[in-house]
């Protein structure tokens, strides 16, 4: 039995699993730090009392310090989430339990789950590299290459890369750090400000969606050019909620690639840029993958 905690900006999902099979799942709202982590610990302690778990995986929103040699390992760095900067995520959740544990970003965990059990595991030849992007309250991205998640000095911050703006798009963006980075342009709050209403209420034929598709396609093409991932999965409330938007993004990625990438064309793009196969289970299963990696001695974090 292993335990997993997916700590998101609006909710926390706590699971216990045998192998990749989730046996129990609880969801609680993300409130202030002490209340939220205390509620998570209550669940974990109850489960551990019934059947001690052999390992724990934590996938959290960020930014996080993931360098085990750093004095602030496992601590939340400055974040737009009020009150969470400096929260000691790893130590608070793992110290009560004597078992191996791993921590990573929630999107890195989701990428790992999709690589092992989802989109990356389909087809005659399993994928060795994918990027998982979630577009919702924010924009995050994680990478899983050759069975491992990817980070170095920090971890991927795809949501804050700059993109080339579409001609005529004057929307200034909403990111408090960068204005019109990709998160400032296409996240849920950005769409609400751009459209003057929540994105899900805007008709698919509204011409402003073309600007949004262009921004996302710029991000996807940048990823493909930089790391040559075999797959880019677009999830989250925005990513999985509008298949029409995904079709627009695919067409624009093909155009932006300009024939330079031999594996990107109209025939192949649907298999390269797609929705996550695991759907909203990618995040919780990501924490399970992290826990199993810790149990096997794989230094995922």
From TrEMBL:
<keyword id="KW-0460">Magnesium</keyword>
<dbReference type="InterPro" id="IPR000600">
    <property type="entry name" value="ROK"/>
</dbReference>
<protein>
    <recommendedName>
        <fullName>fructokinase</fullName>
        <ecNumber>2.7.1.4</ecNumber>
    </recommendedName>
</protein>
<keyword id="KW-0479">Metal-binding</keyword>
<dbReference type="InterPro" id="IPR043129">
    <property type="entry name" value="ATPase_NBD"/>
</dbReference>
<dbReference type="GO" id="GO:0008865">
    <property type="term" value="F:fructokinase activity"/>
</dbReference>
<dbReference type="InterPro" id="IPR049874">
    <property type="entry name" value="ROK_cs"/>
</dbReference>
<dbReference type="Pfam" id="PF00480">
    <property type="entry name" value="ROK"/>
</dbReference>
<dbReference type="GO" id="GO:0046872">
    <property type="term" value="F:metal ion binding"/>
</dbReference>
<keyword id="KW-0862">Zinc</keyword>
<dbReference type="InterPro" id="IPR051804">
    <property type="entry name" value="Carb_Metab_Reg_Kinase/Isom"/>
</dbReference>
